[in-house]
């Protein structure tokens, strides 16, 4: 029986060459993490990779991490203690724990690695039963080709399709490039990401807040219904296919001389009280055990306290919604974290 027809082999070879060429060209134009379509939050990776500063600390997690740790506040607190270096918050809304490994092995490897990686410990981040579970983002942008090949037939078709799109990212990025370059909103979004090192609010927002002013450009976001927030935490499943994620991540960090720190983030009291305490306790016990086995430190900090508003003034909220700290509270939270956790590790 003969092999494949010669024209099919030529077509396959031509497709492979075109794939490699478009990926190379898009990479040379700096489009890997800029032409990301609707997922514009991924563009922070472009600024991280092209920045000339020396990163001391990198944060990764969901939007909870992105809200809780404003880079400019952390950098200022560390500078006051004589600790040089930039702080980058690479938190991605909707992210999941498995993304952390390729973040280290692919993204951080492309530039000078930080001394410390701070990883989110929320059940939202680690919940394998969360709707979406960050899976589409993982397969679309981060899944290694070898894993894609091993998982074909064992995962939903949508994940395989997203993984295939990742392999042809260069062609898609080149297709999006003209539109991306012409849309002013994209340029503004990139400028804000660059200025804030990935934080939700830019330094000018915090300068205004220090003067007691809520900047007019920043609308107060609507509150997220409690029931909607709970869907990310319950039903809760952990320790299945992601059971070795932390150990593999710790090994990758250790081989690169990066200290890994796992941080539990506060929730608004009504959300914390509404969640099943037995499930939440079981999850924390499981993750703390994984941390101990991997030799990784675990830190849990309570929600910050804010000074009472002056008489007649609008109350200062600690949370914007059930999951996310307000910018005022995040500034207090981040400064305390820098003083108690980051500075001792970076100085020692």
CATH topology: Rossmann fold
Which CATH C-level class is it?
A: Alpha Beta
Within the largest sheet, what's the order of strands? 2-1-3-4-5
Instruction: Report the end-to-end length measured between terminal Cα atoms.
Output: 68 Å
Give the SSE order as H and E letters: HHEHHEHEHHHHHHHHHEHHEH
Rg of Cα set? 21 Å
How many beta strands in the DSSP annotation?
A: 5
What general outline do the C-alpha atoms trace? globular
Number of helices: 17
Runs with pLDDT <50, length 5+? none
Helix content: 40-55%
* CATH 4th-level superfamily: SGNH hydrolase
Q: Judging by the overall fold, what is the CATH architecture?
A: 3-Layer(aba) Sandwich
Q: What percent strand?
A: 5-15%
Describe this structure in words.
The mean pLDDT is 82. The chain is built from 17 helices and five strands. Helix 4 crosses helix 17 (327-347). It has 348 residues and is an alpha/beta fold. 51% of the residues lie in helices and 7% in strands. The protein has helices at residues 6-28, 44-50, 63-68, 71-79, 100-107, 123-126, 135-141, 145-151, 157-167, 169-182, 184-196, 203-210, 226-230, 245-255, 269-274, 277-294, 327-347, and strands at 55-60, 86-89, 116-120, 259-264, 297-300. The chain has a single domain, classed as Rossmann fold. Strands 2-1-3-4-5 form a five-stranded parallel β-sheet, sandwiched between helices.
Q: What's the SSE blueprint?
A:
Layout: H1 6-28, H2 44-50, E1 55-60, H3 63-68, H4 71-79, E2 86-89, H5 100-107, E3 116-120, H6 123-126, H7 135-141, H8 145-151, H9 157-167, H10 169-182, H11 184-196, H12 203-210, H13 226-230, H14 245-255, E4 259-264, H15 269-274, H16 277-294, E5 297-300, H17 327-347
Parallel strand pairs: 1-2, 1-3, 3-4, 4-5
